[in-house]
């Protein structure tokens, strides 16, 4: 199958939390014989902060953002794909892409919206009845999400969507795995995450509060945007951590912390990529509590779960190195057996195979066009 994928960036994780997810899914699809072209805008200084070269498992097309000529050319280039995907959160031309990719829908070509932040999308739609995506969503053949579980599925179905299927984050075992410790990342507890408005209060609670409660312990913070934040003296800020250093960042501290954004914690069933990156590296993971964590890791056996900052502090204070390593080892075994991107790619194929070729919606005209370009390869 030829797949055209419009997303934020495949080659840069700079201010781009979806990069790991995109890479894992697309690399696994390539391994199963599919051909993916990833279209990304030259925006937000990401090309200057690339952390991978153009990979052999995808064709990357970077289009300019000074006017819409570049994105329209990319859409023309994508017209002969078997499946055209518009991901959420591209960051530029989102409304244009949400509308125009639907013009590529025809017999032999499916169009999907892949929501990498469904809780935020659905809350946006709930707050604005006039949001143009409300009318567009039911016209897609499929909505895919990287989390959210049944609450997200039901919310999308209430909008009239034909089919909504979560394809969760996972681990790419070739990319995220144990490595030797790196002294740069020595700490009792480390957190890696960009500073975002709907996560900052939870970072205050689950990271900065325990740091204040445990002034003799060393806390490590990585990610963009925290440079002007006042921090306790025992917090070390290391700034942006390139993906090549994520394994070392995860395995070196005694434990690493996951803090979900507010909307994702509220919907639940939304493990972010850092959960699987940490587990894949064999790290001892502490996470904030959210519905559905037990679907992915067993609390107290494969992951430590805290309801507030005081509980994080208690876990850090009592955690010995042997216990941390044993827990991390169990987490790694669990994700390798059940939650790899190979598992997710197989699920993706099953979902696509179950969808009929596009048929006109009421009042909609489907342009007669090409058949499958080269056929579907599985």
Brief sketch in words of this structure:
This protein has 378 residues and is of the alpha/beta class. The protein has helices at residues 19-31, 69-77, 94-100, 118-127, 133-136, 149-158, 200-213, 246-251, 262-267, 273-280, 309-318, 321-338, 341-353; strands at 2-6, 35-41, 59-63, 83-87, 110-115, 142-145, 164-166, 189-192, 219-222, 235-239, 255-258, 285-288, 304-306.
Task: Please supply descriptive tags for the structure shown above.
Rossmann fold; six-stranded parallel β-sheet; alpha/beta; globular; seven-stranded parallel β-sheet; 13 strands; 13 helices; 378 residues; 2 domains; disordered C terminus
CATH architecture field of the largest domain: 3-Layer(aba) Sandwich
**Uncertain spans:** 359-378
Structural class: alpha/beta
Q: Could you tell me the strand content as a percent range?
A: 15-25%
């Amino acid at each position: 199958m030829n797949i055209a994928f419009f997303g934020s960036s495949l080659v840069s994780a700079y201010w781009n939390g979806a990069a790991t997810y995109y890479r894992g899914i697309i690399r696994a699809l390539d391994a199963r014989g599919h051909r993916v072209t990833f279209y990304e805008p030259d925006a937000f200084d990401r090309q200057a902060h690339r952390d991978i070269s153009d990979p052999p498992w995808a064709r990357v097309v970077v289009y300019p953002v000074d006017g819409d000529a570049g994105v329209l050319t990319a859409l023309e280039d994508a017209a002969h794909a078997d499946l055209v995907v518009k991901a959420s959160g591209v960051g530029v031309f989102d409304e244009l892409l949400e509308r125009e990719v639907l013009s590529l829908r025809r017999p032999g070509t499916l169009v999907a919206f892949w929501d990498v932040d469904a809780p935020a999308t659905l809350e946006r739609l709930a707050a604005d009845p006039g949001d143009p995506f409300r009318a567009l969503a039911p016209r897609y053949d499929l909505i895919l999400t990287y989390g959210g579980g049944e609450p997200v599925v039901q919310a999308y179905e209430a909008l009239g969507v034909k089919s909504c299927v979560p394809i969760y984050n996972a681990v790419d075992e070739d990319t995220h795995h144990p490595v030797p410790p790196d002294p740069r990342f020595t700490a009792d507890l480390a957190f890696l995450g960009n500073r975002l408005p709907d996560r900052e209060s939870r970072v205050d609670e689950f990271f900065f509060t325990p740091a204040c409660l445990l002034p003799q312990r060393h806390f490590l913070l990585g990610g963009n945007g925290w440079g002007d934040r006042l921090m306790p003296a025992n917090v070390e800020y290391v700034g942006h951590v390139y993906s090549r250093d994520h394994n070392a960042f995860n395995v070196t501290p005694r434990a690493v912390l996951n803090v979900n954004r507010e909307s994702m914690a509220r919907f639940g069933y939304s493990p972010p990529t850092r959960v699987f990156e940490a587990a894949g590296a064999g790290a001892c993971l502490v996470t904030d509590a959210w519905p559905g964590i037990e679907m992915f890791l067993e609390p107290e056996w494969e992951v430590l779960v805290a309801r507030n900052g005081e509980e994080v502090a208690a876990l850090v204070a009592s955690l010995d190195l042997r216990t941390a390593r044993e827990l991390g080892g169990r987490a790694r075994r669990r994700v390798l057996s059940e939650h790899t991107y190979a598992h997710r790619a197989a699920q993706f194929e099953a979902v696509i195979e179950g969808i009929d070729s596009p048929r006109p919606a009421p009042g909609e005209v489907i342009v007669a066009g090409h058949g499958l370009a080269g056929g579907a390869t599985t």
